């Protein structure tokens, strides 16, 4: 089983600032979710914990499987996934903005606003999505369409001014708003889609 | 606590409990996920962490001087 870990630049823990030394086992006397031990990701967990650096990590000792991560008492950074860099992060964030635009276009089309939906789908960059969304919002009083077009503009601003995790979060939040069935978990579904994007783009395999 | 809807106000109120390890795992998850996509909250949490880390270096753990202790010992409680 393979696991990964996102870190800040310089192989530092995202929340604790812990400075990892690649190739050296680190030990913790105990494990507790979010509190003690070394936390890592399966492929499906990756979009929840995005950071500047991505590392392949070895775990040892009892591995506790949690909903969105695993935790173990012993861990070692094996090698950095160099495919995850600033450019890849930007590409990933852009894909998240595109998803938000798709959700808004679907909402417009569902309510017969096909011209505006097509304009939104035809746009290919953040400025185009923002302009198409603003124009569509100006032409309708439909609250759900106005809301989603607003999210598109938020997503473009987020893409321009915030790190990739913010774009990923916003896309998941919008997916949650758009979930059609009461039992559907749009947030988790969108996070799963993001995980597949990362696996494909970074060529990660869970086993190996 | 739902990570999809949790607000900055709630997150800020959890910083101390997270550092104390007092948050339930689900809340800890939501807290950490929020920090990753909210630079202002991350900065606040980072400052808190640094302040905690600095405490041992500024705390005066030396013995109270005898003359100062005598002053206080003579006072009524």
Describe this structure in words.
The complex is a heterodimer of chains A (208) and B (77). With 208 residues, chain A is α+β, with helices and mostly antiparallel strands. Chain A contains six helices and seven strands. In chain A, the strands form two sheets. In chain A, strands 1-4-7-2 form a four-stranded antiparallel sheet, with no helix packed on it. Chain A has a three-stranded antiparallel sheet with strand order 3-6-5, with no helix packed on it. In chain A, strand 5 and strand 6 form a beta hairpin. In chain A, helix 1 runs parallel beside helix 3 and helix 1 runs parallel beside helix 5 (164-178). The longest helix of chain A is centred in the middle third of the chain and has 25 residues, at 86-110. Chain A is elongated, with a radius of gyration of 19 Å. The mean pLDDT of chain A is 92. Chain B has 77 residues and is an all-alpha fold. In chain B, helix 1 packs across helix 2 and helix 2 crosses helix 3 (39-58). Classes of the chains: A alpha+beta (208), B mainly alpha (77).
Topology:
The complex is a heterodimer of chains A (208) and B (77).
Chain A: E1 3-7, E2 26-27, E3 38-40, E4 53-60, E5 64-65, E6 70-72, E7 74-80, H1 86-110, H2 114-122, H3 126-138, H4 143-161, H5 164-178, H6 186-202
Antiparallel strand pairs in A: 1-4, 2-7, 3-6, 4-7, 5-6
Chain B: H1 8-19, H2 25-37, H3 39-58, H4 66-73
How many individual β-strands of chain A? 7
N-end to C-end Cα span of chain B: 46 Å
Q: Please outline the major beta sheet of chain A.
A: 4 strands, antiparallel
Specify the number of helices of chain A.
6
Features:
heterodimer, A: 208 residues, alpha+beta, four-stranded antiparallel beta sheet, three-stranded antiparallel beta sheet, 6 helices, 7 strands, 47% helix, elongated, B: 77 residues, mainly alpha, 69% helix
């Amino acid at each position: 089983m393979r696991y990964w870990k996102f870190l800040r630049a310089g192989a530092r823990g995202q929340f604790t600032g812990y400075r990892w030394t690649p190739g050296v086992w680190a030990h913790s006397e105990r494990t507790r979710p979010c509190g003690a031990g070394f936390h890592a990701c399966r492929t499906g967990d990756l979009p929840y914990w995005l950071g500047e650096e991505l590392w392949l990590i070895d775990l040892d000792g009892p591995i506790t499987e949690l909903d969105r991560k695993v935790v173990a008492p012993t861990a070692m950074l094996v090698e950095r996934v160099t495919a995850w860099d600033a450019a890849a992060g930007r590409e990933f964030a852009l894909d998240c903005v595109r998803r938000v635009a798709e959700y808004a276009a679907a909402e417009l089309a569902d309510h017969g606003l096909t011209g505006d939906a097509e304009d939104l789908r035809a746009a290919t960059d953040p400025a185009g999505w923002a302009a198409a969304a603003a124009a569509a919002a100006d032409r309708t009083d439909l609250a759900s369409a106005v809301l989603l077009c607003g999210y598109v503009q938020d997503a473009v601003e987020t893409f321009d001014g915030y790190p990739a995790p913010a774009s990923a979060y916003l896309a998941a939040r919008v997916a949650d708003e758009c979930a059609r069935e009461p039992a559907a978990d749009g947030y988790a579904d969108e996070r799963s889609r993001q995980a597949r994007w990362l696996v494909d783009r970074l060529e990660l395999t869970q086993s190996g | 606590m739902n990570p999809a809807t949790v607000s900055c106000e709630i997150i800020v109120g959890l910083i101390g409990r997270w550092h104390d390890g007092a948050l339930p795992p689900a809340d800890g998850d939501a807290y950490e996920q929020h920090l990753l996509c909210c630079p202002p909250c991350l900065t606040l949490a980072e400052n808190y962490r640094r302040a905690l880390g600095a405490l041992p270096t500024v705390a005066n753990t030396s013995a109270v001087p005898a003359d100062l202790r005598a002053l206080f010992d003579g006072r009524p409680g």
